[in-house]
Amino acid sequence: MKSFFRMSYPYILWIAIFIVAPMILILLYAVTRSGNSTLTFRFTLENFTRFFSDPDFLRVLGTSLRIALFTTVFCILIGYPAALFIAQQPERRQTFLILLLTLPMWINMLLKTYAWRGILMNFDMDSEIKVFIGMVYDFLPYMIIQIHTAIAKLDRELLTASYDLGANKWQSFLKVTLPLSVPGIISGITLVFLPAVSSFVIPKLLGGGNYVLIGTLIENYFLVAGDWNFGSAISLIMALIIIGAMYLTRKLDRDAEEE
Amino acid sequence: MERKKPFWNFFTSGYLILVLLFIYLPILYVMVFSFNDSKSMVSFSGFSLRWYESMFSNRDMLDSIKNTVIIAVIATAVSTVIGTVAAIGLSKARRVIRNIILEINNLPVLNPDIVTAIGLMLLFLSLKIRRSAVTLTLAHISFCIPYVILSILPKLRQLDDNVAEAAMDLGATPWKALTRVILPQIYPAILSGALIAFSMSFDDFVISYFTAGMDVQNISMYVYSMKRFNPAVNALSAVIVIVVTMILILANLIPHLRDKKNKKEEPET
Amino acid sequence: MKKTLSVLLALALALLPLLTFSASAEEDFGGVTLNVYNWGEYIDEQVLRDFEAKYNCRVNYKNYDSNESMYTNISGGDDPWDILVPSDYMIERLIKEDRLQPLDKSIVDNLDNLTDDVKNLSFDPDNTYSVPYLWQNVGIVFDTTKIDPATVEEKGWEIFLDPSLKGHAYMYDSSRDAFMIALKTLGFSANTDKEEEIQAAYNWLLEMNTAIKPSYVTDEMIDGMAEGFKWISLGYSGDIAYILSENEDMDFCAPKQGTNIAVDAMVIPKNAGNPKLANLFIRFVTDYDAALAISTATGYCSPNAQVMAELSGPGGEYEGNAAYLPRSGNDLDEIFHDNPSLAAKLSDLWLKVMASR
Questions:
Q1: Is the dihedral of CA C177, C252, C220, B214 positive or negative?
Q2: Are C2 and B49 within 8 A, CB to CB?
Q3: Is C216–A54 a contact, with Cβ atoms under 8 angstroms apart?
């Protein structure tokens, strides 16, 4: 049985080529200077200083974070009640409702965004609002499902006990349901906030050319300006921020569980 | 148990209906306007199939659909096989190695997809490999495998090793132990992993955008490249919605029907 | 009824190749693919279908929306594009970098029907590498019901600093053209590489961004202006000609401070997969029929003298259309020259303009 571990060898080779090598390449390009098709190994940190010393780029980073933050907050505000109410339904209806929620997730994100673009094209509203609608729309189902999973797992006995001890519905919710559903919220946040920071497609399609975000920068430096070094540096910065945040939330989650 | 107040019921149902309406608004809207006689997205001037005709005579659009499906099928098949083999191998590997591999495996999942995309693009271009349908498929396989593994591995850890051991003690070859004992037990996890892989590949935009070549486009790339509004996209959306709905209905009906059939065949106790 | 018609049509189309006489052996390319990389909204699809039918081939037609992104795309890999349609200054660069192959003049033999305005251009005086495809100048399209034409005439490019236009403007996402209007307004050359002048232009653009908060778009402005979503935009004369023909409230202005005249021309890269077919494509497109279709569909001025005269003349599709014929004879109008370091710098600064608040 132990010999079965040799089955993992092919995959180890695969990830060496397709996961590790690309990351190393990004790192290499990020810390070297010029020369696109041949890596001329002139090590430098100038790509990083160029990014961090420029208020415009920092503002772009800030905008990306801001949009991601607002999107996440709205997803929680709208999604939590939805998840809660679904969890209170009889079980068969719950399955049906979750199914209804997941159906749109199978439809191509660009098609859905384009649909919104068509709809919103005819309304005169601030493009920032259009972008929010598109972003919240895209991420909401993930948030609802994560929170619902957490709430559905709760032991009904806990709530019954709470009522028996004299708490009313609202107090029970605050003291029992809400705290125990926090892992679901955190899980939802990782599925929403982090991808939202790097998204550039929805803001580009719906923002009407008003939004330069981190993703837009990366796209521009790679595909238009041809500056792979700077583009890689920005990618690396963003990857580090996001992965760092991931680990932070995981640690918070684990700490919360241990309490 | 407290008796639920009717007002509260009304409120919660109403809220859920509103949320569902929001979720389905663009879908229903484009389905309606896919039959619009004019280009407008605001006024419905008459029923017409012109956008469906336009869609079926649009070579680039049809190619993109074909490419999306073929690549998704290939990527799902290959990544499911590699992923299953890898998961089984990893479950038996030493803990340290397993953890390292899993952390690396998680990178495409945690990384923003544009970073994964850039990495793969740099890989192909630095190795002077021309970007093509092949590189695109490789890229898709690459980001699908982690999801397959993440789906199967937990199930594998739950398995009782003794069953497979017993099988081999009784003379079964490792291969038989694998196919007759282990695989059937993790079958649901493999299936769900494959489904996730398929949906990730079908929906992908960013990674495809950077790794596809001059002659391949998937649906997402095609839509992104449309600078001016082409209402044929509404027809495309409508078709996809219908296909997805039918598949989901089937996927949920078949187990139902099978259960019913099984019930019928059971003798009444 | 419509469905049966479609099915019958599809069947007929499928059988058509069998019914028509097959192309002569010399002209039958056996279904091979010709890879054409062109600007978006820059052709009449029927021209491609006619070419495919005539030479029994398939055209893989992809779009780019800036010279820079096209250049980066072809530089990264080894893609065997057969036809590119860069602008003048980009052709200059490609020639300098020895990335193009000379045209086969035995195939491309119809160059005498080109108008004089596009002959003898500095980047390729003898048409060794390139044949003009469409030409245009950059200008302003605006809604006459919202903005007084006299004001636009008087202010020229300066109108883009007018705060009353805030939120009602598009700005074309093209670094070279954006800097051109800034430089021209400030009285400098659009090809300058003097640091102070570029800085001044950069500041002008920042001021513009703050004053009118435009939407930075590319081809989206075509439908946007045709539908009247915004009041004003920077644009290319061909797109604007189309807009004027769709929306009679709109008008065109080539500002007094001078503007850019550009010629987009077809070239064949050195590593083209199918040079012979590529040359045939160039000849095909330069001929009267295709040139007429392309100019009519896109609104851009054709380099084919006959087509140009016909479309702008009496009874022509663009008769009286202010944007169809590029302005000539204005000393302030300039053509862009190639300067890679300048282009890179402008591209960078432009991104910062778009990102600034």
A1: negative
A2: yes
A3: no
Contact C42, C85 (CB under 8 A): yes
Closest residue in B to C1 (Cα) is B49
Half-sphere exposure (Cβ direction) of C310: Cα atoms closer than 13 Å: 13
C98, A36, C168: which is closest to B121 by C-alpha? A36
- Give the tens place of pLDDT for each residue, B113-125: 999 999 999 999 9
For A62, which residue in chain C has the nearest alpha carbon? C355
CB contact under 8 A, B125 and C218: no
B215 reaches C (C-beta below 8 A) = yes
pLDDT digits (tens, 9 = 90+) for C20-61: 444 454 589 999 999 999 999 999 999 999 999 999 999 999
Number of domain units in chain B? 1
Higher pLDDT residue, A15 or A258? A15
Query: C35 is written with which tokens?
Result: 């890879």
pLDDT, average across residues B108-112: 89
Q: Which chain B residues contact residue C60 at CB under 8 A?
A: 214-215
Least confidently predicted of A202-216, B196-210, C163-177, C306-320: A202-216
Pick from C51, C223, C225 the residue to mutate for testing the B interface (most B CBs within 10 Å). Answer: C223
Closest by CA position to C85, among listed C221, C254, C265, C207? C265
- Do A126 and A144 touch, CB atoms closer than 8 A? no
Q: Does residue B111 belong to any structural domain of this protein? A: yes
End-to-end CA distance of chain A: 38
Chain A hits for C347, Cβ within 8 Å:
224-225
Question: Is CATH 3.40.50.1970 the right assignment for the domain spanning C136-261+325-355?
Answer: no
pLDDT of residue A165: 85
Q: Where are the domains of chain C?
A: 25-134+262-312, 136-261+325-355
State the ipTM, two decimals: 0.89
Q: Which residues of A touch B22 (CB under 8 A)?
A: 137, 140
Could you tell me the fold of the domain covering C25-134+262-312?
A: D-Maltodextrin-Binding Protein; domain 2 (3.40.190)
Rounded to the nearest angstrom, the minimum Cα separation between C321 and chain A is: 28
Chain A (91-150) residues lying within 8 Å, Cβ to Cβ, of chain B:
97, 99-101, 103-112, 114-119, 121-122, 137, 140-141, 144
**Residue B41 forms contact with C (CB below 8 Å):** no
Asked if B214 lies within 8 A of C3 by C-beta distance, the reply is no
Average of per-residue pLDDT values in chain B: 90
Terminal-to-terminal C-alpha distance of chain B: 35
C107-134 pLDDT, tens per residue?
Answer: 999 999 999 989 989 999 999 999 999 9
